[in-house]
Amino acid sequence: MIQKIDHLGIAVKNLDEVVKYYEDSLGLTCEGREEVESQKVKTAFFHVGEVHIELLEPTSEDSPIAKFLEKNGEGIHHIAFGTDDIEGQLKSASESGVRLIHDKPFDGAAGKLVAFLHPKSTHGVLTEFCMPKG
């Protein structure tokens, strides 16, 4: 069911500043920005080979990203695996004893359905499954 690493999520304090770094210092091009109200974040995406980098800036103090930044500072927040069957992937993970943060997928950035696995069940790595809607 897992087909690839879809993206790496990176928590940032200032999206504009970090986008400038990725563009000016690394020579990458921002593919676009989006606000995901359900997760209280603004995002920016960069395509690098077969993987995307998703920069995440909180839009609210109670955003999961704001809480992450407060505890850990800026840095890698999650790894997202692209799947062709997100519901099946969640069921399989749950049946193997993995604790789910979301038992049903929801709308995420870039027109995808997403759901997360709890890092206490994934050896410390917040893990996301994602799949294009439709």
Shape: globular
Radius of gyration: 15 Å
Distance between the termini: 17 Å
Query: Helix tally?
Result: 3
Order of helices and strands: EHEEEHEHEEE
Provide the residue-averaged pLDDT.
96
Describe the largest sheet. Answer: 8 strands, mixed
| Biggest sheet strand line-up | 2-3-4-1-5-8-7-6
SS class: alpha+beta
Low-pLDDT stretches are none
Q: Which percent range describes the beta-strand content?
A: 35-45%
The assembly state of the depicted protein chains is single chain
Strands, total number: 8
Could you explain the architecture of this structure?
22% of the residues lie in helices and 42% in strands. By secondary structure, the protein is of the alpha+beta class. It has an 8-stranded mixed β-sheet. The longest helix has 11 residues, at 15-25. It starts with a strand and ends with a strand.
